[in-house]
Structure prediction request, 271 residues.
Amino acid sequence: MTADNLRLFLELSSKLIEEAEDAKAILYKREYEFFASDCGKPVWCHLYELPILQHALQGVDFLGGENAIQRLAGSENKIIEACVLVKEADAEIDAWNPTPDEKEELRPVLAAVYALSFSLTNSFRALMTFGLYLNDLIAIVRNGGPDAGKALLQAVKIDPTVIGCQSAITYISQRTLLGDTKFLGKLGAAMKGKLSDSEKNHFEKVRLVLQVLHETGAKRLSGPDLYQLFVQELALVEGDEHSNSDTGNVENNLRQFAYQFLKKKAVSQPA
Prediction:
């Protein structure tokens, strides 16, 4: 996995998030068209119960169906191939000049189709914010244990519709029966989607890169390797010469950050 490949992936990820926000704005402006009584109802919370790969495969028809699966399976560099598939799909959409009849045929299903894209974007936002896909956070809730409450609150901050997941409903019901008003109060606050100061940081893209390296089986990077990648090659983190004296050594901070990130992976795999 080269730095150029990672730059391409980061560029594509940013574009997808921007396009998701643009699509949401379009739906809002034309609510009465896309949410009319004859339209499919956009519900997606159940997708968070799936492992992220199965979740993503729900949209494979958009990228070319079985052909896309075969291309990804046969590619030596699946990140690059996925980027190519998305760009090809975007080009087809840009070149499409639908007739009025084709527009009307698409209208009843557009919101439901967008819901899949929206759910995947939210899962990536969770990864960039908390280091875990939304699907992984819901898996932690489903498995129970001491981290279940924290995982649910994090998931709700990214997408409040996760409370519709069976795993979330089960956990909330349990806390309700136990009279856990403290957790229920935190749940209400989390619904507003406001991140704490500690959750607002500039390491979103660092998490995304670490996830790509993790999923592609790259070897664990040393402190100097991390510094070279994130400071010198990708320019996602400022070097020692630009850091505040009280923040500590940048290389050591990156090493600790990567360690904590991968530690989560060891204990947070979906069931």
Summary: The CA atoms of residues 47 and 129 lie 20 Å apart.
